[in-house]
Amino acid sequence: MTDTITKTESKQDTLTSDEI
């Protein structure tokens, strides 16, 4: 379960970095 949360957070971080 922790792995899924970490993966989701990592994906969001990449999206945010791409937007900036």
Automatic annotation (TrEMBL):
Basic and acidic residues bias locations: 1-12
Region feature (Disordered): 1-20
Name of this chain's protein: Uncharacterized protein
